[in-house]
Amino acid sequence: QTVFSSLVFVDQADAASFAHNEEVTLMDWGNAIVQDIVRTGDVVTALTVQLHLEGDVKATKKKITWLGQDPNVHPVEALLVDYDYLITKKKIEENDSIEDILTPVSEFADTAIVDANVGLLAKGAIIQLERRGYYIVDKEAAQSELGLVTLINIPDGKAASTASKHKEDPNATKIKSGKGNSWDKPSAKAKAVHPDAALSLPEPKDTCNMYESKHMYGDVAVGKPKDITSMYETHKYY
Q1: pLDDT at site 181
Q2: What is the rounded distance in angstroms from the CA atom of residue 202 to the CA atom of residue 211?
Q3: Less CB within 10 Å around the terminal CB: N or C of the chain?
Q4: CB–CB of 81/49 below 8 Å?
Q5: pLDDT for the residue numbered 75
Q6: 3-state class of 119 per DSSP?
């Protein structure tokens, strides 16, 4: 169910982007005009908006998600969890130390207020939080030590979701990588060595890539075709 109320929550990043008298769209509701913005430093603490349902949703640049605050239906608090790669390299080399390439922090968690319907979901349910991504319910509120519904982010394959969240310390000492594994591809400057070089076999003759062989039908050399035919010479019938 969707809760409509005179008191709504919006994302802090959205609120910070608003300007006085700007018209925005509250998704699944309609347009509204921002009349007042209260800030404490860079943080928006309150907004006053006036519904303008006759406004054109196609004319606004900002489509905002929101949550209605109703005395009888309270939004649910949740823990949004995301994970990073366990190591900081795509490929482990022979001279790498596991301790040096382990990701310092591989789990990230943020608290959030989500739709009241999330509180009705069972463990294992998969949902989409608008403008945030897909999540799976890892723990119901009653199963969590914090009393929060735990949602784990599901990567969608896009670059933003597959990129590592680890950021290297610019002051950290960097260790120069070695020559790599024995199975690495040879350098472009490396001279190719024939696999049979150690056998001291005779070199192939002419342009043939195979070793010299005897004629299949005796030792008499067969003459080359004449003129433009690609077959052996034949006599005319007429």
Answers
A1: 37
A2: 8
A3: C
A4: no
A5: 76
A6: helix
Owner of token pair 């076999």: 201
Is the pTM here over 0.85, yes or no? no
| pLDDT of the residue at 88 | 86
Distance CA 151, CA 136 (A): 6
**Residue reference for tokens 């310390």:** 169
The Cα–Cα gap between 211 and 200 comes to 13
Nearest to 70 by CA among 117, 20, 139: 117
- 51: number of CA atoms within 13 Å, CB side? 11
List all residues 6 or more positions away from 109 whose beta carbon is below 8 Å from its beta carbon.
Answer: 79, 80, 81, 82
Q: What is the average pLDDT value for the chain, to the nearest integer?
A: 78
Alpha-carbon torsion, ordered 171, 173, 177, 178, to 10 deg: 170
Q: What is the edge-to-edge ordering of all strands in the sheet holding 23-26?
A: 43-51, 30-40, 23-26, 63-64
Is residue 42 within a helix (H) or strand (E), and if so which, with residue range? none
For the four alpha carbons of 48, 25, 114 and 19, in that order, the dihedral sign comes to: negative
Tokens of 139: 């723990």
Q: What is the pLDDT of residues 74-108, one digit of tens each?
A: 778 999 999 988 888 888 888 888 888 888 888 89
Structure tokens at 24: 């925005």
Q: How far is CA 174 from CA 101, 171, 177, in A?
A: 11, 9, 9
Question: Would you give the distance in Å from CA 136 to the centre of its chain?
Answer: 17
Structure tokens given for 20: 């006085």
